[in-house]
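Notebook, bench 3.
Goal today: get a predicted structure for Arylsulfatase K from Takifugu flavidus so we can plan the truncation constructs. The sequence was checked against the plasmid map this morning, with no discrepancies at the termini. Length recorded as 527 residues. Pasting the sequence as submitted so the record is complete.
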Amino acid sequence: MSVKLSALILLFLAFHQVLARNRTRPNFLVVMSDAFDGRLTFDPGSKVVKLPFINYLRELGVTFINAYTNSPICCPSRAAMWSGQFVHLTQSWNNYKCLDANATTWMDLLEVNGYLTKMMGKLDYTSGSHSVSNRVEAWTRDVQFLLRQEGRPVTQLVGNMSTVRIMGKDWENIDKATQWIQQRAESSQQPFALYLGLNLPHPYKTESLGPTAGGSTFRTSPHWLEKAGCYLVSSEQVTVPKWLPGAAMHPVDFYSTFTKNCSGFFTEEEIVNIRAFYYAMCAEADAMLGQLISALRETHLLNNTVVIFTADHGELAMEHRQFYKMSMFEGSSHVPLLFMGPGLMSGVEADQLVSLVDIYPTVLDLADVAPVGSLSGYSLLPLLSTCSSCPGGPHPDWVLSEYHGCNANASTYMLRSGRWKYIAYADGLRVPPQLFDMILDKEELHNVVFKFSEVSAQLDKLLRSIVHYPEVSAAVHRYNKESFVAWRHTLGRNYSQVISSLRWHVDWQRNPLANERAIDKWLYGSF
């Protein structure tokens, strides 16, 4: 046999090995929503609003009922998901400071290993984005002033019973993703990985507050609020959450309530409407997920596709007298995490504590791709499959979440372990910690940190073994000061005009000299 013929045979065999591997490796569809409360994906929260396509994943896949964000804000949370590392390791401190543009993600590794990859919709995991207000509010959170940064949460009803597509930008991306799936079915033998980032159910920007306004409008239509097909917000299930009186609130929670413009009076009707409108926005997001699942089914790709649904963080929706995220309370930190696909178990609710950093090693294990570098996350494949020889060791019995951005005036660290949620702040000395019994106190209204001092001490020791949080808090404090000084220097004589026109402008302009003095004391005083 000639050398040339032997080479051709080897090339032919290698080609067929690649084809065979491609046929056995699954496709991936990953849908990450924005601000979706994970408690709505299992009972009793799932009874509030019907979410048929999330329920479809529940019935045919695995639902993690104790899944948490690694940072309850958009960009740092996504940075953790894409990198597989805790945010203090990547220094993803706020919505402006996250991953470098050249950071290696699990999607990059899939592409290098033969996957056809596509990322669509909201990505938001690299540095440099979000508003000037957002970054300045994060940098100055240690300044001793109290300024409202967000618009008061409101509702807006649009359209009529036939108005389905409220979030036009998301629907446009869903249509593009649907078309992409159809094209893949017709033209490619490669396994694919498609990521789609949604804006929903994040509140909409409140246009009446001007160009610097954040998202404080909960917008939907009668279609999603009332019975429409299989969707129905159950008004009798929309409860008014209990609030602590202001004097009994933890100081960081009180700061968040004030800066989120929630310290004023709200009627019961306002609170119920905000919550109902939010649930209706979740139903619209569910319909978007449904269109992609239908596209996979119609193109005969569903049986070989792992579908993952999750979110960057949750939404408080007036729990604890707050909306938005930026908090370690369940509404903000608890996220959905559902898997469905070939070889995975069906109809299973897994109670293991997990977090978004676990997605990285799990996707790579499912694709038979080796990770690069050290990871904070653990593969969930042993929890997804009955395979006795699945890779990955036991998952630890804790999860970590941390927050260093705006609307909270101290770096915050949450350790969830067993029945407990332990929350430490700053250096562990200047701000008192919190401890909640998640079995007896699901509403997180009773801080038992002093009642169970031994438990608190044990959890604090465990937390410090995972992250030396006083050191991290000091690093964030230095970063905030240096970033603010550099920003102020670039503005020159325009500084006073610019800082007084940010989102806090109403409160700032009442006493600008006192606010400037507070900043100077923060910059040039002792830490």
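DSSP finds 18 helices and 16 strands in the chain. Residues 410-467 form a domain with the Arylsulfatase, C-terminal domain fold (CATH 3.30.1120.10).
Flagging this for group meeting.
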